[in-house]
Amino acid sequence: MTVEKIKNSSELEFAVFCIENVAAKLGVDAERVYQAFTEQSDILNGYIVPEYEVLHTQSREYIVDDLLDVMKERGCGSMILYHGSFLEIVKPDLVHSRPNVDFGRGFYVTPLYEQAAKWCGKFKRRGDVL
Fold this sequence. Notes:
This protein is mainly α. 50% of the residues lie in helices and 0% in strands. Helix 1 packs across helix 2 and helix 1 (9-26) crosses helix 5 (60-73).
């Protein structure tokens, strides 16, 4: 595996593009992705920079999905999952979950903070208590 430092402004802009778009996809802060790419792994200098010539010609969706796969392969960046509730859920209780939802009873989570916030707001407006 080749480790390379950023050599020019095009590579720097691409690195920032990668970090910001992975952060947006995961619903996390870009600083956290930067740390995952540099402190928890060598993805920035060991993958993004050496593969710049090929990667920068791909679509945003392809690049982000590829980087998420690389993160999984290299075991970095534990995933944060969100549950849309206005109450703290210390221990999920499937007995009290709703039976007639898309995938049946369960404790639904998402890696997207915005989506969980929408779920929370929806239930709070209706007055549902789960």
